Amino acid sequence: PTLAVIVVAAGSGTRLGQAEPKAFVEVRGVTILERSLDAVFDASTPAQVIVVAPAAKLASAKSIALRAAGPAAGAVTVVEGGASRQASVAAGLATVLPGVDTVLVHDAARALAPAELFDRVVRQVRSTGRGVIPALPVTDTVKRVADGVVAGTVDRSDLVHVQTPQGFPRAALDHAYAVAAAEHTDDAALFSADGGEVVTVEGDARAFKITTPWDLRRAENVLGVSRG
Ligand code: CTP
Ligand code: MG
Question: Looking at the 3D structure of the chain, how many domains does it have?
């Protein structure tokens, strides 16, 4: 394949507060990791799929990944993550095969991100040669606050929420990770810090990140409505 998708699933899910690491928590009977991988394998571009998992969950991640992959099982790798998300992405990047020219990085926690979002990001990376992030407009009014006192209203006309999968030309992403000196909040920020240009594609509301118990309820409800 000329595409690799790194699915980072090595976090502990502190804010979700369940016994299992977050990617191994079920939403309506199917783990968050498996739901994310189902979309990756439903996307139309064949990919090397790299799952980055907690040390204690490598075997479980492998069986989930093989089940999601079905006939594409040969394209799956499972590797151990690191202490930060950035370290986990770096561990995944280290296993990208020669011949891959485009890399997507996806949070397993965005369990309901649809396959078409992956396709949209891949297409945009390949047509622009830039970093690509899914984005949605900020709809709430945003205030600047100091010591609990409102100091002003932020103009939100040029603000967006960003999601994953984020996509990059492989060589430029490898370089950005090799020289990264600090922890960045997302892969696009790390890529920009190395001089890479990043553009947006339209995000998808379903690509919200499951972070808190409320988010888990929301995911259950979305599935309940769409699948009956
Ligand atoms: N992640 C990872 N390795 C880490 C930390 C995070 O692979 N050391 C992954 C998570 O598994 C998740 C994604 O990065 O899919 C986004 O991180 P987040 O939502 O913050 O997940 P957690 O770090 O697990 O949650 P929390 O911060 O609440 O502990
Ligand atoms: Mg975290």
Answer: 1
How many beta carbons lie within 10 A of that of residue 39, not counting itself? 24
Q: What is the CATH number of the domain that holds 194?
A: 3.90.550.10
pTM across the whole model: 0.97
CA 96–ligand 1 middle distance (angstroms): 21
Kindly report, residue by residue over 126-141, the tens digit of the pLDDT. Answer: 999 999 999 999 999 9
The string of pLDDT tens digits covering residues 38-90 is 999 999 999 999 999 999 999 999 999 999 999 988 889 999 999 999 999 99
CB 60 within 8 A of CB 87: no
Return the residue whose CA atom lies nearest to atom 25 of ligand 1: 13
Cα–ligand 1 centroid distance for 47 (angstroms): 23
ipTM of the complex: 0.99
- For residue 21, report the distance from its CA to the centre of ligand 1, in Å: 9
Which pLDDT value is given to residue 129?
98
Structural domain for 199, as ranges:
3-227
The angle formed by the CA atoms of residues 169, 137 and 13, to the nearest 5 degrees, is: 70
Angle between helices 58-69 and 32-42 (to 10 degrees): 40
20, 58, 105, 107, best to mutate for ligand 1 pocket (most atoms within 8 Å of CB): 107
